[in-house]
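Per your request, structure below.
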């Protein structure tokens, strides 16, 4: 489960939503089979049963986190100017950064189409 301050808070919700996303989900299916509950199409049944609670948690998580850990800065009118200044300080994109972008695009392409 994700920590409260984890920026990827939705991973816990998505793991509960999909049958194969977390080991405990498959364990629950196996335990149900052992006591005689046979699920004809486990993935679809799991998705239908888990979708409402997962989507509610996905929508409620940012609100709860905002109340528990309110941001220190809520108004940033000079953010575009600050971002422009930081980008100028960083300078142009380097060769290594282009190589990293190319490697990432290749990895994602192979994952999607491979």
């Amino acid at each position: 489960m994700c920590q409260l301050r984890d920026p990827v808070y939705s991973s816990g919700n998505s793991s509960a939503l999909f049958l194969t996303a977390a080991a405990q989900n498959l364990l629950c299916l196996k335990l149900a089979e052992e006591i005689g509950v046979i699920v004809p199409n486990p993935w679809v049944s799991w998705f239908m049963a888990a979708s409402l609670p997962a989507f509610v948690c996905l929508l409620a998580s940012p609100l709860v986190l905002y109340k528990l850990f309110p941001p220190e800065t809520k108004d940033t009118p000079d953010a575009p100017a600050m971002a422009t200044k930081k980008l100028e300080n960083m300078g142009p994109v380097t060769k290594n950064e282009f190589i990293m972008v190319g490697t990432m695009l290749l990895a994602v392409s192979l994952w999607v189409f491979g």
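The two ends are 30 Å apart (CA to CA).

Regards,
D.
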